[in-house]
Amino acid sequence: MYFIGITGGIGAGKSEVLNYIRNHYRCEIYLADEVAHLIKEPGSPVYVELVKLLGQEIIGEDGSIDRGKMAEKIFAVPVLLEQVNQMIHPAVKNYLLEHLRCAEERGETELFFVEAALLIEGGYLELVDEMWYIYANETVRRKRLRESRGYSDEKVSRIFASQLTEERFRESCGLVIDNGGPFRETSLQIDRRLAELGCQPFDSNTDLI
Predict the structure, then answer these.
(1) Gap between the Cα atoms of 154 and 167, Å rounded
(2) Which pTM value belongs to this model?
(3) Rounded CA gap, 22 and 76, in Å?
């Protein structure tokens, strides 16, 4: 089974790529941002440590950690942000590696994916078998973000400036998937690489056993 990282800048279409893979291949897919929320559920070790560090005021009415309250507190104090990251990032990796181990033991899937914009910065290059860079040029990404999320050009520019450059993505990733044109062209690139790994798509109209 192959462990593959999916990364790229905002608006490149990482979700679209993963939806295609989910519908055509025997795989498990995890979004690092979603995992980060799962590991903070009430009663978890990370939940206990976060409340201990940041105080009871970050707990919402339902007993879970209020994202807005936590963000307000940690972004106001840089040292707290660093401490929180030191709790969350290792826990996310441990969660993924445990699920990878379980998937390997079950032997029901061929591919295990994790997606995040910050995989390279997060040290995932040393964990995955391959890192894929989902690419679309800046003009295409800006248009997508305006139309799908209503972002202003100023907001898009700020986000772009906070993410890795195209050069850094390309030098760090073993495969570049160009998702700037018709998705049919993107799917052919995905199929070609997965065929090289010995993985064939199943009939998406047939139920898996």
Answers:
(1) 22
(2) 0.89
(3) 39
Q: Which residues of 17-30 are buried (b: 16+ CB within 10 A; e: fewer)?
A: bbebbeebbebbbb
Closest C-alpha to 54, from 81, 91, 18, 89: 81
Place of tokens 């608006």: 11
Beta pairing partners, 115: 6, 31
* DSSP helix/strand/coil, 97: helix
DSSP category for residue 124: G
Displacement of CA 131 from its chain's centroid (Å): 12
Write out pLDDT tens, residues 52-66. Answer: 999 999 999 999 999
List Cβ neighbours of 156 (8 Å cut-off, separation of 6 or more): 10, 11, 141, 142, 145, 146
Q: What is the pLDDT of residue 207?
A: 41
